[in-house]
Batch of 3 targets.
Target 1
Amino acid sequence: MKKLWFLLIIIAFYSSLTANVVAKIEDKIIDSEELYEQMQQYSETDISLQEAYQKALDKLIEEKLLLVYAEENQINVEDNEIEAFIMNEFGNHPTLSTNSIFDRSKYEKFKKTRSGQQFIQKIRNDLLLSKTKRVLQNRFEVKDEVLLEQYIVENSNIDLSYALLNIDDLNSSVKVSPVRAFDFYQEHRHQFLTEPQVNFQFLVVPFSKYQPEIKKEVEAELQSLVQADSSLSATYLDSLYTFLVDEKTKKTAAQAVQYNQELWQKGLTTQFPIWESGFLSYKDSLGSLPGRVVKTAFKLHKNQISEPILVEEIGYLLVKNYRQKEPQPAELAECKSQVWQKFLATQKSILVDKKEYYRKNPEEFSIPASVVRIITNIPPEVCEILTENFQDLATLRKLIRKYNLTDEIKVLYLDKFKNDLPYEDVIAKNILVERYDDLLQLKNNNVFYTTISIFPEYLPDYQDIKDQIKLEQVETIDFTSQDLKDYYQKNKGDFVAADSLQLGGVFYPVQPDTIKIDTETISNFYLNNQKLFYRNDSVVFDYICTNHRSEKLLSYLRNSDEFQLLKFCFGSYRNLPANKLTSYSALPDTIAKTLKNIPVNSFSQPVYYQNNWYILKKIKEHKAGILSFPDARPLIENQLKFSLADSIARAKAETVFDSTTYFDSCYRYAASDNIFKTQFRSASDDFTILGDISDYRKELLQLWRNEKYASIIHLEQGYAVIFLLKKKLGKQLSYEKALPQIKSIFNYEKKLGRAKNYAEFLKQLVKDGSDPEKIFYFLGGWHNIENLDLNSELPGIKYSKIIIEDISHHNAGYISPIIRISENQLLIYKINSINKVNEEDFQKNREKYRKQKLVESYENWLQRYRKTHNIMIYEKEN
């Protein structure tokens, strides 16, 4: 290390003869001589040469930024301040003193020498830096009472346990210890099976393989077409181009997939790679592939290859059922939710009398129904004759006898309850949309039906529906009709139909793709706004996110150039900034660290982050500094395009706004393509083009018909001028209309009450010494979290700061009451230990803590200030 530093000093000596610029901060430069001099401060340390280089550069950038700040805020060092400092620090130096007493005449002579001027300039800079830091420090100073509050917040220490409880899991009047569910699982383990799974292989014939050549081919065809007929419009040609490219691509890919299907079936090498899915259940999905791909694999016999499957976004797929897993007894961790629900239902069934509930609450089972004639087992040749003659009873009877058709009259439920046969439910749905007579051509049966009569209120027989009455329903609804009517009368004003509106107007979208920006404009913007393009160490990357670690996927990526195709087939979207320049500091530590350690154009090993696995692809890396013009150009171009397109859309909307008062006038100032009318709908719903109108709903309801809203509406995609076309004010709902809402309110209150009671029962079990890990195992778990301070957040709790504040008022061993933290969640917490600091602790550590906070405030300020100023860092020369 010392040899390296000796070499550094030699380099510094020679570089002073030809010092080159290392960095530029606004109009201030850092040259290599200054940098190497700063690096010597680290010569006796164990850090590497590269680390010393970076530390020295950062220190010098900080000093130049402080000098810039001093200029901006008119902070100066006067000559008398310099003289006073020199007298105090160097007054007895032989150069400046006589008989060890400061000699002004010597000082005046020294000031005129070159070395004296350099010395005084260095003192001036050092004093200016110190003075500027003091000014900033005064900015960051806070009063002792504020500092005390921060100290208490940051230094209190809490160890906590808590349970987050779902109200639906606790909706039971049967209070039974969850610990008994462990025994229930052991006794009924055979009932809890894993889902069948399939591991399939698949081959993709991507459209992207053929599109480049097909586009050239279609372009040539259209050129010939234009030469033959010059009257064809650009819109027509664009539409034709898109259609032809799409059709020819699909046709070519369809031929290729058939050929590859034959190769695969014969065990020969296919033209495209074969990938493997991993084991999936019937309802699972793979990446962005449609669900029917997995379902197709389930329907195949082992080693059978499917017919081609069209996936519009990518191409054609072939799927092969490669391996299967049959259902087998599930481990408790895999099925604890099902175990709990079944255990609770078993306990409820001991106490619940569904027939008694049916007898006492007939209004709950009164439904619309229909009497229907249903004829089945109809031969294909009879279908047409029957549908033409179904109203002629004589002919109908002859057909039934002649062809031995099954004929019966049935009552079908039109709501709430299922009918005996699946096709009867289809008939019920048809009747609800007023298709009273129809022929259903099913896979193994032709069914004709005709509706005889409809009953708005029909009470099914208990024996017919008893299996469809849910225990949860019986438990939840235990109030009388009179309770509901009383609630309606008391809260009548709450049950009002929403106001309805029809809106119209003119919409101008912001269309940056239609704008062209010349190179000179982009270049000038870059030169005049370079500080906007400063970046810390940054990276451009893409990724594939999956819910399990996949070495096979990594292998596919490394052996294929189809990254986007593999991402579509295997990946799911997560909120990481893919394909854009992002500072390492803005990324999660795990992701940033991994990206720093892999080369450009390579893939990482699977990285575990937030319950998912990520394979990262590093595309480009930028060292800290101002982006080069080629890198900044697309950013500038997009920004200027959007800005100009936004101005154009705004100007067009202003023209219409300034020229119109009523909707009918729009046709004089706007093209019909830009004029719109919405459907008549509830004012609380989203509207076509406009989306959510809550910000201006009140003003719209106050307008007259066809009148214009008071300002231009700025939407995410453009600008709109809007008019009220029609409105219908909400009316008081009758009891019958409000009844579903009232029942829902009663149901929820009853469910919430039962859940709180059950939670209180569980809390008491914990207080009495039961193991909370077992008590809450089936109910979301008992979570332990250590080293909380008063600024911490509890995972999964939206208003955790309020909870932490509540915790701070209690002592170790405290168990909270049942706290409702959302519509569907309750919370119980227990303080395991709590260390609270007080004012006496603060007074002992006040100065040390104050200095710490000043350093933090200064560092935060420096980072923000650095981003707002022009910093150009030049690459080191080899």
Target 2
Amino acid sequence: MWRKIATLILRNRVRIMIGLIAFMACMVTCILVLGVKFTTSNAQLMPYDDPVMQNFRDFQKTFGNEANIITIGYKDDAMAVSENYQRFNAMTQEILDIPGITGIFSMSDAVKLTKDSVKGGFKPEKITSETEKTNWNLVRQKIMSFPFYESLMYNKDNKATQVIVYMDPEIVDSKQRISDVLRINKMVDTFEKETGIRLYLSGMPVIRTMNTEMVKSETAIFIFASLFATCLIFYLFFRSFRATAVAVSIVSSAVITCFATMAILGYEITLLTALVPPLLIVIGIPNCVYLLNKYQSEFNKHRNKIKALQRMIIHVGNPSMLTNLTTAFGFLTFIFTNSSTLREFGLVASINIIGIFIFSILIIPTAYSFFPEPKDRHLQHHKFNWTNRILGWMENLVINHRPKVYQCVAGVVVVALIGIIQIKTSGNMLDDMSKKARFYNDISFFDNEFGGILPLEISIDTKRANAVTSINVLNKMDEINHFIDSLDVSSKTLSVTELVKFAKQAYYNNDSAFYNLPTSQERAFILNEVRNTQGDNNLIGNYVDNTGSKARMTTMLQNLDSDKLSDVIEKIQSKLVQVFPQEQFDTYVTGVAYVFMKGTDFLTKNLIISLSLAILLIAILMAIMFRAPQMIFIALIPNILPLIATAGLMGYMNIPIKPSTILVFSIAFGIAVDDTIHFLAKYRQDLIFFKGNIRKSVELAMDEVGNSMFYTSVVLFAGFSVFLFSGFIGIVALGGLVTFTLIIAMFSNLILLPSLLMTYEKLSSKDFTEPDIDFFEEDDLKDDIKDLDINDLN
């Protein structure tokens, strides 16, 4: 088959080049016409019908989007200077004028409640007059007489203050959110330059926007960085600008096709799909290494360029196809998960990995058929050099010191298993973000001064109309409030109870001594006044549904580690069940922080399943190739060992299991198994040629494929090492762990794999010499096949 493919490619080289140019023009057109967008919404980690997601949607339907709050904080004595405070108030007014901003909650705009003697109920009045607004100390002094604002607007222990900005929930998942947040960020920067006062900006719209902006900037940076790193190593090995240019054209075509694929499928660029273009680059370069190494090796034998290209396709085409298919299948297993984010990532990656193989097998032979013959300097790397010395050392270990190899492997496994026991999981949504980024440091300010910034919501369904404002339910909710506050991991909990306390204080002429829940005697007249407060002045509208049967409780969690977050939520859920019996009430916990934690757990389980499927697919492929049960184990052991070693390293280095790190195993396994297939494919060919002599087959396979395996491993190290410079901690971990895994995989495939083959010689030889199991075509293995000449192409 591959002889026919080689002939077809070389005899139609002009048509193929024209077709490729036309195809790339179509891809570029798709990108320009359809556009490729960066995501503006949160990644959906769980399926639509998961109970956690159903509760989250139900909550948003009842009470609206809870992640629409932006906070601006400060803690500086200079704010007491009248001029500075006036500038700050002017800035907040400018923010309020932004179309997507619906309101601002600041000390200058804070209100108190007064009884409305005309309409009944309460009406809001500004606590400070217009003339008092410029006096920061006076404003703060007046605000502090209202306990409702404590820990919500000011920290009573110091001068830390925050302003709450409300964004229109309708634009939270749109591009307008990004532009509005960037405008606010620019205003904050301007204020800081003019006054020298440090402001802190946070909230979920800010976190998501800054996260998106980092993804945008890093996508382009990593594409070019990975391209530069891999191509530099490629050039150092091959010493040819022409070869490097061809490699660049192949990976560039793959990257363009990747973006076009996302545009055609309507996918947005997420943190995961942004990894696909750099992945294609580091996966595509090894294809070029194997093909060009074989081409130069063949040319070095007989100095016939077209014959060398033909034999390059025949002998490397099939293993390359298999390696790319296995890598693609490894990513394709993600489509069997219930996460839309993973499905998109897996589909885009798998399609384009197959695409980069097609580009490689078409572009290299057609381009080189037009190029001049390689010069001697281009072939120097095939002669004895430092890589040959390394491979010679490895070959000596395989032939003469296999017991030591197995002892080292056993030692690695034991040490790794001890590390694996220490691995933890992480469901913290801020865990992957750069600790050096300004917006991350701003989060720490709100954690320390106001209790947190990550929304956690509680929904309470009384199952009875207007039951929320009953004294019994209010007391139960107040008990939950106090319990959450006692955990000391969140901001002040807001609910209808705090608003009723606020109303009671107003009823008693705003005496702060009366900031508590009404007694049974006070209930009737105070709650009646609360219910009579309608329209824009409705006190409980945001915290009670329109039937009065459902209530919400809102708090902002600190940036907790996964174990602490899980423990806190478990305690809250247990307390809810205790205070609100399930026979009478329906309660659940939701919010961005909780949904992300549960989504991480769900994603981790699905990634483990996809990795297991990938291993199963590879096992099936090995079974088809060799039809010998022991070969499945011989092929898998060298690729599972690096995964075990990496898991152990994660335990020792306290790197938790999370979506970004567990992805390491799927990516590294899919790539590392490529070397195994290339080695076994060459070994299989030589085994038939030497009529079952395993030692000679292993030695020749190491001599001919070893260089390419070493080159590709170094290229992959360079390609993935660029991720170490990411602003996302998770991407840094991914880059470092994949690099480590591939280093172990290289030694495993060049030392452990041939060692296992030679150890199991007696078990293997019988099966391998039977002609009916030949996975390769007979013609593809012969040297006396009809060779093409340059005249055959004209």
Target 3
Amino acid sequence: MTLPSHAQIVVIGGGIIGCSTAYHLARDHKADVLLLEQGQLTSGSTWHAAGLVGQLRASASITRVLKYSVELYKGLAAETGLDTGWKMTGCLRLATNEDRWTEYRRLATTARSFGMEMHLISPAEVKRMWPLMDVSDLVGASWLPTDGQASPSDITQSLAKGARMHGARIVENIRVTGFRMKGNRITHVETTDGAVACEKVVNCAGQWARQVGELAGINVPLQPVKHQYIITERIEGLSPDAATIRDPDRRTYFKEEVGGLVMGGYEPNPQPWTTGDVPDDWQFRLFDDDYDHFEQHMEQAIARVPALAHAGVKRMINGPESFTPDGNFILGPAPECANMSVGAGFNAFGIASGGGAGWVLAQWVVTGEAPLDLWAVDIRRFSDLHRDREWVKARTSEAYGKHYTIGFPHEEYESGRPRIVSPLYDRLKAQGAVFGSKLGWERPNWFAPPGVERRDVYAMGRQNWFPHVGEEHRHVREKAGVFDQSSFAKYEVSGPDAAAALEWICAASVSKPPGRLTYTQLLNTRGGIEADLTVARLADDLFYIVTGTGFRTHDLAWIRDHIPDGARASLRDVTEQWGTLSLMGPRARDVLAAATRADVSNAAFPFGHVREIEIAGVTLRALRITYVGELGWELHVPLAETGKVYDALMAAGAPHSIRPVGYRALESLRLEKGYRAWSSDITPNDTPFEAGLGRAVKMRSNAPFIGRTALEAAAGKPLTKRLVGFTIADPRAVLVGRETILRNGEPVGYLTSGGFGYTLQRSVGYGYVRNAAGVSDDFLLSGRYELLVASESYPAEIGLTPFFDPTGERVRA
């Protein structure tokens, strides 16, 4: 096919993701689509993928994406006439120890929460289903009957044919060499056969996505890693419908293929490929067989399936797959470019994800908004840190090595640390801090008392830090604590139209007089919550915005993309200019008054206000706000002076028993108070009214803002879901999120977050209760509730108001 001069949307890459995206763009949106493939379709990594299709993930939205893939693969052949090789064999996941079994009991609860069928079965049942397996070391297994396997090349060819049937054009053997840009917008795609004018570009170039993105100034932080598996000759007694097997404690997987087995694994010592550019001609190519490296898997596999010891190996596959630093794939609009989106880095589950990823990515490209809460895979979860390819290689290698390890709650990555530290790092370390990491920043999670080992000891039950975090929590409730929150993302919006621009972007009114601050959500056009942040008005034409560490790139991009065209308003990221010390607790005013000459009385400095004050000769921004439910201030200090101000606070606070406090106590404090966390309790799937935040929305004014139309359309109709709190008295219940909510014995939702409330001496969780006929107070309060925790049921009490200080008196003291 000859290259056209123009296309509405150009998709780069003819693997399963590119073909799925092109198919959905053409089928669902009738878009004018041109797909460009530098070799032949599937010639990158799709052709050598193993083809296992699992669906259950920790995110409800990503599980929905994978479930869509299965439904698509089931029916695609009927539309296109090309078979996909889909077989619903089901999947067995094996457990050989109690921690793994607890993980599966939790996963079974998650599956129920997400509407998926999953059973926990005995070793005897496993042996009956898979007679060739040695089950002598098993505790049990999970059984997901709707999982299966498919042929990666067949699916891709079927999707490509479907895309053509709906009007998409596909050109093979053509390489993208660059882009013509106008500002930060692509106007033409340059290729080896000439240029194509276009409106939008979708980068689905697989392991080449990194270098294709670089041509437009975009960072796609993926790392090709060598992944090996074998295909055996026929094995006597192996059923053609044998379930796929995941044996994570032995780091291996199996699937039946033409009477033999496909067997591979995820080793703790992976072999990353190049950090440079992948050769353009790496098509239908593999690395040399590496049996020395693969021996670790062979040994474990033969122990599990002894018949493998006598089976001939038909072929070894040793090919590169794209992996990412956190094990999640990469989707969405690149923050550096106005009209390039990305679909790449699928961590060897591109076949399972391909159908659904193409579906959501196509909608995202056309409408400019994700149709679901896709934060877990959003490209805007990364930052400039991820431009360092050596760092990405180290972290990605660690993530690959964790592919089959037990997923303990609160587990931290270790590679590439410490990367970014606040000026207080050494001081806090000397005070016993045990650090975690968020977007490269080292942050104190908890403080080990003298004589206590300074590290996390992971477990499925209460972990080693539990009592020490409890002491920190109580200290903030009774005295005063300081949190180093310097990693907060911080922006300034300035200019004559700054107020008008923010009024359009924010759901709450931010046009208060200078010296006031506003807690607000930023909404999408569906009324869903895209961000949750604080806006402080410093002057008529200057606003200071504070949001969560991990949301830095996302929230900046959202604000920038929604400042109206022509508005005289500029947006700057000032994160590294300001450190943040959060002084919280009933004695916080005593400490602050001893450290500054400013009047910090309630009359002079009420809640919801911002003032410039001076501590130790340093002028800083004091914001009277809290995320712990106590009297307190966020003190935003010029970064280089953070240590000086911290020392002054510690000296002034000594008579008031001040101490440093970590993020795990922050989490337990906010849970007791019922404060929402974006990406868990509130997401793009949830409106402020469903989340119990309707009071923060300026519906009573006539002011237009993004999302207003959707909220107005829903006004007056009963809410079909509402976020509420639950407590459990039984000390055995360890809440981590995704536990099923039962009302009168029937599932009505699941927890979005969970933990322990040390003041309440109960486990605390939040989740949406759903009911198609409406969720009124009467409906909520008339039910009898239980929470399914690791497949065990515990009685729970519901709360419609905060469990701690429901009237907010302590915050406004």
